[in-house]
């Protein structure tokens, strides 16, 4: 059930007359999450739900599916013909000057833009200004509660320990056989997830040498041998309703001593990561509004100053929720200009990288801003050096603990 008073207070705070939520065949996951739809309840006809800044909500549903919004408060109108649908939309927004929808001007934020252009045109045709619901979506879909925070911490313990298991497996296979493979390590990680009650939408990335220079590499069967650099990017959540993800990336080297060239690039990446974390900490310590683009800039400045700006080819981080890539603010001023605020109760990754033709380096942590504004770097540790896999099979010698 939606919290109508809180929803309407947020709408007024955004300076809107209402929030117009729309879906067709599950096309608007944001609206469905905000309104509390069951995961498997997807209708076949268009519906609209209008929450005014004050007063009772109103529904518009098709005659075939009159109960589509039955779980929500408010009066409902039923349409059959397309002309009745358009007239119904006009009735919903009558008297409004400004309404929020899942829309972003010029598609500046495709994560928010879930309403098609034609539907936006229809609403505008009634003399209504349509603005983005991005921050409203964050507030009512992307923020965690205490139970989700605890589920994230538990998932983080197991994603953290998956690295130690992977490094140990590589070391054992090298000593026994002289090599292993990317997909063999991937399978070990997936077994670890299964043993600890975790699920994931996609297998982890295990990338050796030049493969690590592809941020979205699809793991293959390439051998892993002494002298190789290994990137592992893994993500998982508890196999429970409403569970949220932990998403981490770490680097290892198959040898006793990490070459200076690898160490140099990793240190630049780690410095950029820490600069982004500090940006978040300082903003909340000073109770200053913070936007996602600012966090991206903080990391990107470090890498650009070191001369590797063209090799940092993705945003600094993404929202984390019930999907690995959640629906809150991203840490981005590259792919989009993320002007949504970083809110209390939100979690996101910070994962700068440098991708050279021969190899890539990335360090990924998760940051959660709690309801008091305290900033937590989760999963227990932050990598400070590339792991020398044959010297140690755990990350304990190469990580620094961060308080929860």
Protein described:
With 404 residues, the protein is α+β, with helices and mostly antiparallel strands. The chain has 2 domains: 4-141, 3-Layer(aba) Sandwich (Creatine Amidinohydrolase, Chain A, domain 1), CATH 3.40.350; 143-401, Creatine Amidinohydrolase (Alpha-Beta Complex). The chain has helices spanning 4-13, 29-34, 82-92, 117-124, 134-142, 146-177, 182-195, 260-285, 292-305, and strands at residues 18-23, 47-52, 58-62, 75-79, 98-101, 129-132, 180-181, 198-199, 205-208, 223-224, 229-238, 246-253, 347-350, 353-355, 360-362, 365-369, 375-377, 381-383, 387-388, 399-401. α6 (146-177) crosses α7 (182-195) and α8 (260-285) packs antiparallel against α9.
The first-level CATH class of the largest domain is given as Alpha Beta
Integer average pLDDT: 94
Say what the CATH topology of the largest domain is: Creatine Amidinohydrolase
Helix content: 25-40%
Please identify the structural class as seen in this structure. alpha+beta
Largest sheet: 6 strands, mixed
How many strands appear in the DSSP assignment?
Answer: 20
H and E string: HEHEEEHEHEHHEHEEEEEHHEEEEEEEE
Principal-axis shape: elongated
User: How large a portion of the residues is in β-strands, by DSSP E?
Assistant: 15-25%
Could you list the spans in which at least 5 consecutive residues all have pLDDT below 50?
Answer: 394-404
Helix count, DSSP H or I runs of 4 or more residues:
9
Task: Give me the Rg, rounded.
Answer: 24 Å
Annotated CATH architecture of the largest domain: Alpha-Beta Complex
Report the CATH superfamily of the largest domain: Creatinase/methionine aminopeptidase superfamily
Strand adjacency order, main sheet: 4-3-2-1-5-6
Number of domains: 2
Distance between the termini: 31 Å
